[in-house]
Amino acid sequence: MAQPVPTPSERRRVLLAAERETESLSRHGRTRVALGFPNSYEIGMSNLGFQWVYRLLNREENIACDRFFADEDADRRGPRTLETDTPLGDFPLVAFSISWEMDYVNFLRLLPAARIPLDRTERGEGDPIVLVGGDCARINPAPLAAWVDVFAMGDAEKIVPSLADVLRRDLTRDATLAALADLKGLYVPAVHGARAEGAEDGKIVVQQFKAGEGALREPPHTTLLTPHTELSDKLLIEIARGCSEMCRFCWAAYAMAPQVRVTADAVLEIAKRNRPLTSRAGLIATAVADHPEILPILRGLAGLGYHIALSSVKIDAISEEILAILTKQGEHALAIAPEAGNERLRRAINKKVSDEMLFDKVRLIARSGITQLKLYLQVGLPGETDGDVDDVVGLVDALRLVFLEEGRKLGRVGTLVPTVNAFIPKPHTPFENEPLDDPAALTEKMKRLSAAFWKMPNVTFRGMPVVEAIWEAYLAKMGPESAPILLEAAAGAPVRRLVKTHRDTLMAVVRPGRALALAEHESPRGVFDPHARQAAPWGFIAKS
């Protein structure tokens, strides 16, 4: 018998009752802020950045911050906040944390559902100021500029105090926007202009930590533990921001450089303080095992009785001790990222992993007792040949044999999971001007891989749909002219139909040729081109 669907009010009560604070927050401030994640509660509450901004805002004197999520717009009354069941339109500031371009459509649905004018030029004195922060704001704000009053570009720790100071002044709407435009790291399109021509030097400077500030920094960590997420009751702790690998396709490595690390003592202090609340911990970083104190951190967490989860582990950082700590607690799965099928292509993307190292580490992983190994790989990389695609097949097969050989000695049969994505050119990377691979070629490559891996025992293949690659590449690099297509997506048009209907428009963005700049200004592959950067939709973004 089907269970009755809970009402929005019942769902709110259940979710709030299950949450446990890792810090007591007063939330009684006179100035109110609604902070939203444009996806479900389960996904939003798994996002450490969202949880950390919620904590920082509620720490501010006289600021009270409520949360809301995309699934709350099912309420007939429109989306309302979780804590106080308040309509979004009643708040002076409605802020969104957007870390994935695919959530743009949810953002565009939430505002009309909340009866907030979608076009920012139609908002008046009684309407909230709409702010967007998160990774997408600092990567490329241009696609959302028609609908967003303010973009917060940088680390929340750097921006929230000055933002809160302006909000506490209780200014008129226009005066508030003008005051926010004077703050570092905030982009206000109505004041600064479409390409920030009204900002100082025509640039919006992203505010972020310097490497030397890492030792003094409080480790961002979970604010509210809840069983109602994929990361059920897990204490997430960020141990580093940015990445030292500098793979040429990776936005985080370049846009967030230099890497800022937190000390082991600071991480373990947070873990010790919150141990009565949970026995599950997850370490957050682009390359977790790259932290110079990763072993003291893991030993300390294990000593406190935590079950530890790591995301993808940097290949050269894998050691017997790290694996022993993970497997002793019952961990059987691990993920690594070879990215390409041979050394030549890895060198071209600045992935510092030789075949010899890769095979040695996979053998070590298999010997440790890990029985499922996920391999993150890409096709369509710049400079790729048909032989490179064949090498992906050959590499997986050879690693599979190593994995099985070592597993049999332990009486275990392991599985390899090659997860193959299309290379997506991202802003702020040396490959930002590279085209997406030809969709027909990508389709053929994915079919070849699927056919080859289907024949391999103990291999489970996961490939990125090509239509998804086209859409994701478009979302990453589009400019303000994308507005009509985004509005179609928000109205419910399927991605497949959008890609088919607007193919020429999308291709002009994702396959622009070797560079956006004039021929005489072309740079070697994998090198930043300042002329092309200036012409790009995100060309007015600079780093502090």
Please describe what this structure looks like:
With 544 residues, the protein is α/β, with parallel strands linked by helices. It has 2 domains: 197 residues, Rossmann fold; 257 residues, TIM Barrel, CATH 3.20.20. 37% of the residues lie in helices and 15% in strands. The protein has 21 helices and 19 strands. It has a 6-stranded mixed sheet. Strands 15-16-17-18 form a 4-stranded parallel sheet, with helices on one face. α4 packs across α18. The relative contact order is 0.09.
Give a quick set of tags describing it.
544 residues; alpha/beta; Rossmann fold; TIM Barrel; 2 domains; six-stranded mixed beta sheet; 21 helices
Q: How is this fold's topology laid out?
A:
Elements: H1 8-18, E1 20-21, E2 31-37, H2 41-44, H3 48-59, E3 63-69, E4 93-97, H4 104-113, E5 129-133, H5 135-139, E6 150-152, H6 156-167, H7 173-181, E7 186-187, H8 189-192, E8 204-206, E9 224-225, E10 234-238, E11 240-241, H9 251-255, E12 260-261, H10 264-274, E13 280-284, H11 294-303, E14 307-310, H12 320-328, E15 333-339, H13 343-348, H14 355-368, E16 372-379, H15 386-409, E17 415-422, H16 439-454, E18 462-463, H17 466-477, H18 483-490, H19 495-501, H20 503-510, H21 530-535, E19 541-543
Parallel strand pairs: 2-3, 2-4, 4-5, 5-6, 8-19, 10-13, 13-14, 15-16, 16-17, 17-18
Antiparallel strand pairs: 1-9, 6-7, 11-12
Shape: globular
Helix content: 25-40%
Low-confidence stretches: 514-521
CATH class group of the largest domain: Alpha Beta
Category from helices, strands and their pairing: alpha/beta
